[in-house]
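Lab notes, practical 5.
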Amino acid sequence: MNNLKKQQHYVWKYYLKPWTINDKIWCQRNGSTFNTSLKNIAQKRYFYESEQLNSDELAFLKYFLSGMHPTAQKSLNELLKLYNFTADSNGYIKKCGIEDFHSIIEKNFISILGKLYLEDLSFFENEKEKNDFAYFIGSQYTRTNKMRDNMIKANLKTPNLNPEKLSKVFNLILADTIGNWIFSKTKTRLLINNSDIDFITGDQPVLNTMGNHSYTKAPEKMELYYPISPKYAIYISEKLDGKIYISKDDVIKYNEFIKNHSKEQLYSRKENDF
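Output from the prediction step:
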């Protein structure tokens, strides 16, 4: 019998390791800065626990998916089927099934992350690795506490719809949609930071630099920024690729993006980096 994973992270713990020293990371939360272990940050109790959808919610989701591009509908309906399976189950699968799904996505990205640390972008030439990269980034963008709150706030005027339950499904749907965009249309640039200050990260580690950081409306354009260590970050757009060394002023600019897009937590390697 699998042990229940009670404290479920909405920012990948393995991803945060480059910001740790002696297994501790600096966290700034609500104006307070403290040094702690990764198990204490970016997590909530049973954050990914599935909830059964009522007939109106299922009808709403199926109607929504019917309006998506025909080539995307098969994978999106498979995600809905997966969610319904976990929601209709009991015990471990209900509480941890979606958490395990995210763990599979993360596991597929570990080797790619290792290549990025070596400034190796050759994985884009491998279709499977490129697909794993694309879906991972889409997932990291949508799976967070901030994105769930934004989806909950959506103005659903149809009766018998629970925005909190629907938000748990929509983060899977949007992850797939964004992943398809990344795979089919974008390029990735590796940002190399040789300045004397570090990249920081936060509880919304993937962000759209072209969008409103309050996420109150859908962005008209998307370019994604994702710091992967204190010295490396990736920038995903439809026009920029390759590697580039960036200045201290650019690092400060990108750190401000992280600060503005975070919900309540920022993370760094050193106390004075915030």
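Observations recorded by the TA: The longest helix spans residues 91-117. Residues 37 and 65 are 40 Å apart (CA to CA).
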